[in-house]
Amino acid sequence: MHKKEKKEEQELLDYIRNYRQFFRNSIKEKLLKDREERHKKGEVFLQGFWISRDKISNIQKNLLKKGCIVFIEIHIIFIIFASLIFFLWISFKRFFLP
Question: Is 0.70 topped by the overall pTM?
Answer without folding.
Answer: no
